[in-house]
Amino acid sequence: MINNREINIIVAVGNNNEIGYKNNLLWRISDDLKRFKNLTTGNNIIMGRKTYESLPKGALPNRKNIVITHNTELNYENCIMANSLQEAIEKADLDKSIFIIGGERVYKDAYKECDYLYLTKVYENFKADAFFPKIDFSEWNVIETEKIAKSDKNEFAHEFFKLKRKQS
Ligand SMILES: NC(=O)c1ccc[n+]([C@@H]2O[C@H](COP(=O)([O-])OP(=O)(O)OC[C@H]3O[C@@H](n4cnc5c(N)ncnc54)[C@H](OP(=O)(O)O)[C@@H]3O)[C@@H](O)[C@H]2O)c1
Hints:
CATH architecture: 3-Layer(aba) Sandwich
Shape: globular
Strand order of the largest sheet: 5-4-3-6-1-7-10-9
Radius of gyration: 15 Å
Order of helices and strands: EEHEHEEHEHEEEE
Bound molecules: NADP nicotinamide-adenine-dinucleotide phosphate
CATH class: Alpha Beta
CATH superfamily: Dihydrofolate Reductase, subunit A
Strand content: 25-35%
Distance between the termini: 13 Å
Structural class: alpha/beta
């Protein structure tokens, strides 16, 4: 929890927790994009400035896009700007869930305090320069899993997890 709000992180990682290279994703997995859309649509999404800049068409539709940056002059179309993770959470709509959607820097700040982790594990090694924090599965209860084999539609075998942080 941050500010009394439940925090969800959604992320896709490779075998070594890699998440990106040169400000881009490492794969395009259509099932994963669909899952991302289903979970985040209608909700608040919080992202770092670099992840926003990696989006091909800017703000994602039908979601409240909140972008974190130190730069107080920046103003992106259809986005709410925030100067810290805390401020981003304060600006999130109360009647919608909060999803942290990356990247490395923002995940690092939010991970310890997040309540649910919507994780996609992509079973492959990738060259990367951005990583997710190490996940200690003993801290999490597995709520759901679904394994997806490699296919014409999905270039890499992967697995969806919904994890809930264990109460301490
Ligand atoms: N696999 C996945 O699921 C996934 C998801 C999302 C992103 N990614 C990847 O992650 C990589 C990007 O990660 P990244 O760490 O380079 O960038 P990022 O976290 O997206 O953005 C970093 C920027 O956000 C701002 N920021 C972050 N925390 C802040 C804070 N507490 N206060 C003020 N400003 C803050 C700063 O912007 P300013 O410099 O403007 O101050 C900082 O430079 C890309 O490769 C992307 O493709 C992967």
